[in-house]
Write a structure and sequence with these properties.
Chain lengths: ~260, ~180
């Protein structure tokens, strides 16, 4: 291998870059770090757009803005999300941020992933016993979910993701759903912003082979998107697309 | 004089500890890239880079290379880590704004924080500037995205060989 980069030029270029952009990066560091989650959401939206889904924004904010949801509190209708409608089949999915997901085993248990993809009938707003309304994605309507971790991938985090999938989408662990590399829906994804150790890489490879899950590390992203969609596990959804519905009570949980 | 080289230990307590060649400078470039961008982004970029650099000597293809080639790989790794920590979120924000605007949205709010036009312009300038840097040193952006460290090393070696072959072809057929 013959090197081609002149180190002096590279270092000068790097120093020049920091001189020109350092102030912007310094003053907006927290905001820039927060954009990682948006970038992953963008990746999921782009995945559907690339598969000939037409994108519509639901629940726009003031002046037709897109209000990205950062906290789990609040109703689905209080924040914007993308609705993706397949141009040929008409299949519709909602791509939500930070909405509670119902456990597959116990209707009263929830957890909030960073991104959830569900069928329109899966996004439920219901009244609880105390009279307050809450929004969640039902266990029957969830198609996939994404967890973004601003951490270095550790064995504990990697193995505990299997536990999350077991609780909220157990079919991907039980092997009831055939996975493919071809287009369809993505299986549950865990994204790390930190760098994995060799051992963590090995764990991720083993888990993604055994289960219908995807584990993405920091270095697998480019152009503002997850780079390797073709290499990710996907599946075909056998459920029929349901019409969008608004549920005003919660018969399943009785809350 | 700049301090050069680190000795790294592997995960298993150093039983088969990897050693970066002391002639390889693994500090200058990451320092140049992060000195002045603030502690939040800078610390994250540096810790990620040193974690990956620590493991480079464990990649067999890396060990077989001459010092100058190892240096090249270490430098491109610094660019990759910087890209991932700083440029990727900016590009993600920009790409999301594009998609949202195509869907008829006027602007994006992250919670209560509005992504203003000025912020968008600065994001664009910063990303473009980094791409100019990559062009000047002839590093394709695809090289900065990789699944494993071995893939990354193999990618750099393959690109270097491709460049060598193209240079040879040009020598043989100067008319092309």
């Amino acid at each position: 291998m013959k090197p081609w980069i002149d180190r002096k030029i590279l270092e000068t270029e790097a120093e020049g870059f920091v001189k020109r952009n350092g102030y912007f990066l310094r003053t907006h560091a927290a905001r820039i770090s927060g954009l990682v989650e948006v970038a992953v959401y963008n990746s999921v939206v782009s995945f559907y757009e690339a598969q000939e889904y037409k994108l519509n924004v639901l629940f726009p904010g003031p002046k037709k803005s897109f209000v990205y949801r950062l906290k789990s509190s609040g109703l689905i209708t209080g924040f914007s999300c993308f609705e993706a409608v397949h141009m040929t089949t008409g299949e519709t999915v909602l791509i939500l941020q930070n909405v509670k997901l119902q456990s597959a085993h116990d209707d009263h248990l929830y957890y909030t992933p960073d991104i959830v993809v569900c069928s329109p009938s899966g996004a439920i707003t219901a009244e609880q016993k105390n009279g307050r309304r809450h929004s969640y994605v039902s266990k029957d309507g969830v198609l996939t979910f994404v967890e973004v971790k601003h951490l270095i991938p550790s064995p504990e985090l990697l193995f505990s993701f299997s536990g999350l999938v077991l609780e909220f989408a157990p079919d991907f662990i039980a092997g009831c759903i055939a996975t493919t590399r071809r287009a369809g829906h993505l299986t549950p994804i865990l994204v790390f912003t930190g760098v994995p150790s060799e051992h963590s890489e090995r764990i991720a490879q083993s888990l993604t082979k055994r289960y219908g899950v995807n584990i993405i590390f920091c270095t697998q992203k480019t152009e503002g998107r997850i780079a390797s969609f073709t290499e990710l596990n996907k599946y075909r959804n056998s459920q029929q697309s349901a019409l969008p519905v608004t549920v005003t009570n919660d018969p399943q949980t009785g809350l | 004089m700049k301090e050069r080289g680190h000795t790294y230990s592997s995960d298993n307590g150093g039983a088969d500890s990897w050693k970066m060649n002391l002639q390889v400078d693994d500090k200058s470039l990451i320092t140049a890239l992060t000195n002045g961008i603030g502690a939040v982004l800078g610390r994250r970029a540096r810790s990620s880079f040193f974690e990956l650099a620590r493991r480079l000597p464990g990649v067999p293809e890396f060990n077989g290379l001459e010092v100058s080639s190892q240096q090249q790989i270490v430098d491109i790794l610094a660019l990759a880590v910087f890209y991932d920590t700083v440029v990727f979120p900016l590009k993600g924000g920009m790409a999301f704004q594009e998609i949202a605007k195509r869907a008829g949205v006027t602007h994006v709010r992250i919670g209560r924080d509005k992504l203003t036009d000025k912020f968008s312009r600065n994001m664009q300038l910063c990303v473009n500037d980094f791409h100019v840097l990559l062009r000047h040193v002839e590093v394709p952006v695809d090289l900065l995205s990789f699944a494993t460290l071995s893939n990354f090393v193999r990618g750099v070696i393959a690109l270097a060989e491709q460049r060598e072959n193209e240079a040879l072809d040009r020598q043989k057929d100067p008319g092309d």
